Amino acid sequence: MEGCMLRGLKTKGYRAYNWLLHLLYATPPRYRAGLFANFIGLQILRTLVFEFGYRLRKIAFRRTNITSEALEHDGISVFEDFLSHEQMKELEFEATQFLDNSTVTTDARPLTLTCNLHLIAKNGYRLVSKTFSREFFEKSGLYDIVECFLKKRVRIPPRVYFIKQQYHTKDLGLPQQDYQDEPHFDIPFRSVKAILYIGDTDDSNGAFNYARGSNRFTLQRLLGEYLHSIMSSKNKKTHRNPLQGLKLSRFRAESLGSVPGKKNTLIIFDARGVHRRGDFKTDHPRETIFIDFRDTDSWMNSIMAAPIMPRQLKKFGR
To answer: Domain range for residue 92?
Structure first.
């Protein structure tokens, strides 16, 4: 009986611990509440609060750089030859090693193979590449760009994935089943993501698409947020976030265009802007490293006094 009570206490304690972690690491969702709350203007209020918070941070955080200014204006910045030739070869080898051994697959359109590198690092697995740990898990120029754009410190490492996507020949011309080929935006506030092409990527194999300037805060955008929140509240079960039925001009999305690039091209973008994954016109794979700084919007990032870096990273050739 006593053992059962102890087990019960341990279970409750573990659940409470998980709940607390979830609360601290949770980031604001795209929308909150239901149809009525959004109908009376909850999303307008949320968007204004996010924008006001950013402008307050901007007063205190004055550091800036050329790339963060480009992100502010266009929502996107592209770097060709982001890494040196030697660093890229090192990274390619590691990507091939992890993707070949990965068991996380999605047999859909497109066929997707994913490896979550941030989980591997935190669990203590050794990364072969010094480049990877130096550029994505330690303080680097990329972190400086994100901090200058968001006007806040990055204290939690980003989520990083190796991703390989490919269409079967028989599926060419069919829409993508995860809806990422439809124009959409992720959230109503500034948030940074980046894509590093580790293979040549163009309009034939799903090059990233972005609408320059669609990240800017305007009254038209505010109205679009309101209308879209109502649409999404009506269609919660579909798990979709398309802009169908709305004027793209409200989001400055008429300029949506492809961002092709050679291997070693880095795309940094504001996820508040309208974007999509391009179409697959051939069976040539799209291989990328996806970097997501979304956790900088969590409470944990705000309350920590120093950057959280996995201790295991000290072993990665440093």
So the answer is: 36-315
